[in-house]
Amino acid sequence: MNPEPQELFVYGTLRKGGANPMHDFLAREADFVGAATCCGLLYRVDFYPGLVPSAAPDDRVHGEVYRLHRPPFALAELDRYEACGPGFAAPTEYLRQVHTVRLHDGRDVPAWVYVYNRPVDGLELIRCGDFFARP
Q1: Are 71 and 2 in contact (CB under 8 A)?
Q2: CATH architecture entry for 7-125
Q3: What is the pLDDT of residues 45-93, one digit of tens each?
Q4: CB within 8 A of 111, min separation 6: which ones?
Q5: Cβ(6)–Cβ(68) under 8 Å?
Q6: pTM for this predicted structure
Q7: What is the C-alpha separation between 125 and 127, in angstroms, rounded?
Q8: Contact status, residue 12 vs residue 48, Cβ threshold 8 Å
Q9: Please, what is the angle between helix 21-29 and helix 71-82, to 10°?
Q10: Cα angle, residue 48 at apex, residues 78 and 26 outer, rounded to 5°
Q11: Which residues make Cβ contacts (< 8 Å) with residue 46, sequence separation at least 6?
Q12: Coil/strand/helix, residue 22
C-alpha cells in the first residue's frame, strides 16, 4: 500500500454542489472518482461539518473521492484552506490523515481525509452521515 495516497475523500463544503470556490480548485487539480463512504460520525460544526473516525462499521459518512493530479501541491493548498499542518498553531481544527474509504463499487482504498480535531460536545450529530441530506 502506498503510504502517500493520491486519493482524497471529501464530505462537506468541498463536495460537488457545495458552492465553494475551493471545490473549483479541487475539480481542476483532481479527477472525480465517485461517491464513497468512510467509517465515522459526522457533526455540524457551523456552516461546515466535521468527521470523527469510528470503529463501528455502521457509522458511515457519505462523500466523494478525488484522485489528485499533483498531490503535494493540491494538499498544501487544501491544508491552508482547512487551516491545518505546518504554520498553524496546534491543536488545529482538522488533521489530515489516511483512512480507508469504500468506493461506490465496493472497493476499499486508502485516501486522505480531513478529520475534526476538537471536542464534539454540544455539536449536532448528523445521524444519516450525509452533510447534504435534508432532515
Answers
A1: no
A2: Roll (3.10)
A3: 999 999 999 999 999 999 999 999 999 999 999 999 999 988 899 999 9
A4: 5, 7, 8, 9, 36, 38, 65, 98, 99, 100, 101
A5: yes
A6: 0.94
A7: 6
A8: yes
A9: 170
A10: 30
A11: none
A12: helix
